[in-house]
Structure formats: C-alpha cells, structure tokens
Amino acid sequence: MAEENIRLLLRSEISDDGSQERELDERSLPGVLRARGGSFLLTYTEAGEGGEVQSELLCTDGKIRLCRRGAIRSEILFSEGGVHRSLYEIPPYRFDMVVTTEGIRYAFDGGAGEIDLIYRTELGGALRHCRLTLRVSPDDR
What we know:
It contains no helices and ten strands. By secondary structure, it is an all-beta fold. It has a ten-stranded antiparallel barrel. Strand 9 (112-123) and strand 10 (126-138) form a beta hairpin.
C-alpha cells in the first residue's frame, strides 16, 4: 500500500432547510493518504471545542465511508442517491442521524486529488444541506 503525507484543504458549507444563511468553515490540515488498487484512505485529525477528532475517509467503488472518532463519533456511508442511518455522538449525547447523498465525486493522482460530497442530514428533527470538499496536495515539508 502506497502511503504519502499530504496537506488537506477542508471546506464545509452547511445551511438549514429553508434558510438563506449558511455556515462556512475552511481549514488546512496535515494528513496521510494511502492508496491500494482503486481504493484510497485519507486520514486526518481536527482540533475542536470538545477535543480532537480523528477522521478517516475510505473511497472505494464509487462510495465513501467517513468514520470519526474522539470528541465526535460517527460513521456515515455516502453513495449516490443513498440514504444512510447512523448515530452521531458528542459524548455524553447521542443522536439518530439520517444522511441522504445527493452528489459524490472523488479523484486522486499520486498524492493529489479531491473529494466532493453534497448531502442532506436530518439530525434531531433539523434538516440541513451540506457540502464537504477536501482538496489534497503533497506535503512538501
């Protein structure tokens, strides 16, 4: 399995259903990209208000599985047009979550690439529209 240290530009856009307002977050993070056959595993760690969150995105067969551990815990499967039910945990709280994938795209070439996810979430009765874009480039440090 090929492994490469990378820089990740993470951009998240979230808007509530029926609202024109949106939350926008953009950050640059170090990470690791592993490639094997046609599958890619991207790992990175974010610091948040409640502590660190370790994230893994497994891209394979046109699907993406996002696993988060730490201050936030969740596991979400994104597949074009798919609906996935899971738990979203911010200890000690647990919420049922439904994710509907509206768009999914990923492409990698060496240590560079991009993941683009467009999806809706229903969490605690609130509907939100989300877009997560991750741009990957080699870490030249």
